[in-house]
Each structure stands twice: as C-alpha cells, then as structure tokens.
C-alpha cells in the first residue's frame, strides 16, 4: 500500500502531521481512520437529510398540485357563476316611469275621447318615454337600447274625477274611471294605482317605488314625474350623491309645471310638452279652489279676486274659515326697516303667519260685505291706486274686520306666484289648506309643500 496515495485522499491535519513526523504506515492509518469514518457518517447523514427533504418536497408538490386542481376547478365554477350573474344583469333590462298623477294630468284631448283617448295616451306616452331614454343613454357604453318600459301612475282618482267634472272636461266621474281602466288595459306594463285622498299617499308610494327600482340591477333607468311638488326635492337630493342613483335617474317634466326648487338637482331631464297638461290647475271657478270667496262663504260663484281697475274687491255671505287655519307652527320674524320680502333657501316667497281672528271678526266682515265690496288695497295697504275713481268701499272698518279681511285673502293665490317680490302683497304664496294634497282643482298650483323657513330677506319691488 502506498502511504502517499492514502494520505493524498485525506487532507486532515493529524494525518499530515504523522506523515511529516515519519510515522509508520500502520500508525498513520490508525490515526486517520476515525476521520474517514466521520466523513462516511456525515455523508450518510447528508443522504438521509436529502432523502427526507425530497420526500417532504414531493409531499408538498402533491398537496400543491391538489390545491391547484381545486383552485382551477373553483375558479372555473366562479367564472361560470360570474358569467351567469352578468347574463342575469343584462337579461330583460327595463326602465320605469313613476308618475304623480295628482300633478301630471293627461290633456283634455285624451280624457274627453271616450273611445280611443286612453289608448292614444298610452301609446304616445310609452313611445315618447322609450325614445327619450334611448336618447339620454345614446353615448353610454354598455347600456342596451333594447329594453322593456314600465309606467306606474299614482293618483287620487276620485278627487281628479270630481275636479274634471266641475271643469266641464268630462260628464261624470265614471268617465274618468273608465279612462284609467282603458289606460291600464292598453299595455301590460302600464298601471294606474288609486292612492285615495291625502297628500302623502301618492308621495310616499313614489318615494318607496323609486328606492325599490334604483336597487334593482336589471332596472337601467328610473324617471320621476313629480316636478310640480317641492316636497320630493329633499328625498331626491340624497340619491344624487350616489353615482348609481344619479346615473339611473331622470326628472320627467312638462316644461312649464316645474317647481323652482328642482333646479338644485343635477339629474338628467326629460321634457314632455304635448301629453300632459302644462299645469295641473283647471279653472278658478271650481268649488275645490281655495279662494277667498269660498272661505268666507260665497255660495254659487266666486268673485274675481282682482277687479279690472286694479283694486281688490271683497264680498261674502258666510261660512266657517277655521278649516283653513295653518297646520304649520307659526313663523314670526321682525320686519326689517327697509321694504324687503322674506324668502326660503330656494328664493321662494315665504308668507309670515297670521293669527286667526275670532269668529266675531269674521261675522263682522260678512255683515260688512253683504251690501258692497271692500277695497282690500285701501284697507290693508292704506292707499288705493284708483284714488277717487274707485267704486269700492273705503269707509272705516270696525275692530277686527281688517284682520279678518287680511287673513281671508291669504286663501287666494297670488298671480305672481312664488316669485312675488311685492312687499305689501296680501295674497297667499303657498296653499293654506291642510291635507289639500296638491289636488288638481287647487288654485295654488306649484305652491304646495313649500319650505316655510326664512333664509333671508330680499329687496321688495313697488309693483
């Protein structure tokens, strides 16, 4: 055996030391043998470790492979569900028109046509709304122009029919009911819902229906026909802050019958000019109109609230005015020294509340006006624009008559409306009748649900 060859395979220091000391081959082998054995043990341990690591890695690989298979299967299932959900969202898209029928009244040409009026109204409204929605969303990617149209009309049928009979548009209330029945039968997705009397009945239904439809993914557009009533504005303001609600919503207006407060809303607008009446009011000679003559008891016909000469004649023959006392809490502010007019945050005129005079005062007013008309301009403003040429009663009034006169005239709608800036205007600028519900026959058209909180005073005008 060649010692150098043996030593050459193991560089351990003890072996080399023995070799340099000239140790015998046997001694050298005895000395270096433990090192070789240790090396072999280390190799065995390394092999065992590698084998164990290999087994562990194989097990992990197998587990990961199984996880991957599960993930792939799960992903495919979720992809399938996502595709099905996407198809369901785009399947059967529809749009909805919610109409407050107390403010949006079909034109006379439809209602008076017993045979085909309702069908024509349904066809024109359906086609107009469908085409308008398509035009609104022409540039919207992903908006399908192939959709169903649903129309929901909420109305006080009895109140509307009564008003239209008195206006001479229809012969009897049953004709109005027949019109609504034919309107409903004309299309499976057109419904007319009778909400009965009361302002909040239709309002509440429209609010909840709007909330319901905006939450449905298949409902791509909701248009609300309620622009005559400012009471809807606070509710709709909440939804214009929501991107989905804002994109889905439009305001359906007649072009004229739009309350000023709706200008604060940023929704899209659909203007319909030839299906509904421009204003829900009929004539001012109906017994449901809240005019001064009704309130203090004119029996058959109502006198004009203003005579041609500019003065305001007042006559009466007696009834109970207390039913028109305001249901709101009195709003009292100190009048500024310079002529101004109180307005709310929308710039609409606010009427300062008046204390209701006693029945004695109203009796004195009735008695005074039995034989002649009072000049309201003279008695309330202290001057008469007609001067000596005025033929109305300028004589001194008994105590309380002036207050009764002023209170009574508040029940007559001001012709200037909510934009009136006349400081000494004694007519009303919001409906004083509790529970009126903005009925079609009320002369305070567009003056219901007005915010009576004074935001500021604006300069008044002399005339």
TrEMBL record:
Signal peptide range in chain numbering: none
Occurrences of domain C3H1-type (ranges): 369-397
Region span, Disordered: 298-344
Pfam family, one: DUF7923
Annotated InterPro entries: DUF7923, Znf-CCCH_tandem, Znf_CCCH, Znf_CCCH_sf
GO molecular function term, any single one: zinc ion binding
PANTHER family, per database record: CCCH ZINC FINGER DNA BINDING PROTEIN (AFU_ORTHOLOGUE AFUA_5G12760)
Protein name: C3H1-type domain-containing protein
Organism: Byssochlamys spectabilis (Paecilomyces variotii)
């Amino acid at each position: 055996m060649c010692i150098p060859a043996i030593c050459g395979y193991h560089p351990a220091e003890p072996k080399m030391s023995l070799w340099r000391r000239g140790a015998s081959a046997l001694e050298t082998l005895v000395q270096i043998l433990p090192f070789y054995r240790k090396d072999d043990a280390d190799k065995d341990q390394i092999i065992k470790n590698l084998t164990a690591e290999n087994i562990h890695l194989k097990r992990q690989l197998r587990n990961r492979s199984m996880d991957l298979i599960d993930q792939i299967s799960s992903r495919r299932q979720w992809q399938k569900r996502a595709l099905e959900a996407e198809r369901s969202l785009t399947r059967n898209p529809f749009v909805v028109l919610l109409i407050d029928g107390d403010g949006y009244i079909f034109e006379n040409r439809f209602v008076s046509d017993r045979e085909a009026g309702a069908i024509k109204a349904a066809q024109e409204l359906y086609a107009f709304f469908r085409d308008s929605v398509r035009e609104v969303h022409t540039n919207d990617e992903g908006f399908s122009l192939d959709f169903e149209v649903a129309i929901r009309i909420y109305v006080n049928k009895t109140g509307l029919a009564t008003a239209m009979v008195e206006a001479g548009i229809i012969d009897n209330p049953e004709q109005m009911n027949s019109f609504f029945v034919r309107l409903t039968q004309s299309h499976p997705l057109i419904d007319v819902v009778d909400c009965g009397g009361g302002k909040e009945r239709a309002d509440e239904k429209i609010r909840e229906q709007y909330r319901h439809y905006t939450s449905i993914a298949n409902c791509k557009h909701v248009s609300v026909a309620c622009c005559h009533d400012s009471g809807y504005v606070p509710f709709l303001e909440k939804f214009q802050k929501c991107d989905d609600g804002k994109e889905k919503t439009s305001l359906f207006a007649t072009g004229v019958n739009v309350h000023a407060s709706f200008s604060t809303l940023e929704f899209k607008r659909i203007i319909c000019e030839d299906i509904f009446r421009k204003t829900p009011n009929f004539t001012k000679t109906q017994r449901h109109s809240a005019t001064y003559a009704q309130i203090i008891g004119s029996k058959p016909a109502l006198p004009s609230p203003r005579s041609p000469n500019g003065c305001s004649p007042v006559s009466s023959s007696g009834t109970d005015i207390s039913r028109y006392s305001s249901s709101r809490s009195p709003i009292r502010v100190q009048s500024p020294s310079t002529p101004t007019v109180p307005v709310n945050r929308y710039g609409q005129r606010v009427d300062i509340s008046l204390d209701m005079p006693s029945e004695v005062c109203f009796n004195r007013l009735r008695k005074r006006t039995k034989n002649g008309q009072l000049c309201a301009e003279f008695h309330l403003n202290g001057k008469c624009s007609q001067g000596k040429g005025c033929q109305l009663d300028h004589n001194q009034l008994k105590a309380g008559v002036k207050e009764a006169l002023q209170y009574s005239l508040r029940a007559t709608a001001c012709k200037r409306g909510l934009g009136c800036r006349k400081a000494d205007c004694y007519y009303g600028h919001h409906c004083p009748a509790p529970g009126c519900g903005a009925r079609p026959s009320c002369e305070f058209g567009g003056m219901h649900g007005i915010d009576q909180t004074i935001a500021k005073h604006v300069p008044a005008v002399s005339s």
